[in-house]
Amino acid sequence: MRTRILPVSKSSIQEACQILLAGDLVAFPTETVYGLGGLGLSSTAVLKIFEAKGRPSTDPLILHLSSFDLAQAVSDGILASPIPKKAQSVTQRFWPGPLTLILPKGPRVPTEVTSGLETVAVRCPSDPSASLLLKHLGHPLAAPSANRFGRISPTDASAVLAELEGKIPLILDGGPCTNGIESTVLSLSESKPVILRPGSIDSQTLSSFLQMDVPIRNSSGNVQSPSPAPGMLDHHYSPMTPLYLCSSPIKAFSGVFEFITYADHSIPKKPNIHVLTNDQQGSTAAKNLYRTLRNADQRASSAILIDPIPNSPWAAALIDRLQRACTGTAVWSDGQWQLIPRVRR
Ligand code: TXA
Ligand code: MG
What we know:
Elements: E1 4-7, H1 10-21, E2 26-28, E3 35-39, H2 43-53, E4 62-64, H3 70-75, H4 85-94, E5 99-104, H5 111-114, E6 119-123, H6 128-137, E7 141-142, H7 157-164, E8 170-173, E9 184-187, E10 194-197, H8 203-210, E11 243-246, E12 258-263, E13 273-277, H9 282-298, E14 304-306, H10 315-325, E15 328-333, E16 336-341
Parallel strand pairs: 1-8, 2-8, 4-6, 5-9, 11-14, 11-15, 12-13, 12-14
Antiparallel strand pairs: 2-3, 3-7, 4-7, 5-6, 9-10, 15-16
The structure holds threonylcarbamoyladenylate and magnesium ion.
Magnesium ion is lined by residues 144-145, 153.
């Protein structure tokens, strides 16, 4: 199959809708990362998503909605009533935007979407191209990140092509994603709200909005059985090159490695030295993280070493992704880097 990339326009959106309504897949931009979309209420389209990604069927998908009207989603059979009270206020405050909610599943959602769970993940993206596509389509889109399973999420159309060329007919190109990391996943289906995947809408923001502690659940699932956060696999978001998190800020750029520094420490400009931010901001680090990892990965060095992530509202999300991607820790000792593999759970 030939994979085409078309810039977002009225005609490419129309074409995307035709492909989707015929049951095929289209990759599209969102404010977080690119999604691999298929009709969310069609089992066959959803199965195609799992196949194109090589994703285990135990890892459920997010349904992307065009509207944040939860009552409408109930009457459309996407959600089941009663909707948790907090969901209304959270969606009014944070939708459209990079927040996924885990809510009771309605009768029209195929079991393939939820991996058999009684809850469904829903989100209303704020990216204008994603909104336009969803409005035009008039149907929820099931969409995981548009990468092969376990690999780095794509944040531009060329990264989608590198991941899925030949597996899907169309990629809508809306330019680089503004956020750069996946949405926060908040469960409102348990006795208390809990974050299953940290993202740009952080624990402190949600805690102060809900006026209660909203913790991040620190657990990993496995591919055999859906856990409350089935996609939170221990090993995920990985480059091909082994990635090591440095135990202290990188000062020695020696050894045949790729180095990702958090900010420019007035270091020499060399092809194996990559700078994550030029302004020390967590939001910039997030926006650049996956592209930088891909660039470092392409140079086929023996290892990628990355600076510690300093504190900011984005730190929990960045550290979460890096910990899942990493092979171990790098420690500078006796004039050389010691690469210590982590023990996998
Ligand atoms: O930013 C994003 O969320 C992107 C864009 C494309 O919207 N999508 C994305 O999808 O990251 P994916 O499939 O890569 O991650 C979805 C996460 C997984 O960790 C999955 O396990 C979790 O949401 N999830 C989905 N349904 C769930 C459910 N019913 N209960 C708990 N976790 C669920
Ligand atoms: Mg993903």
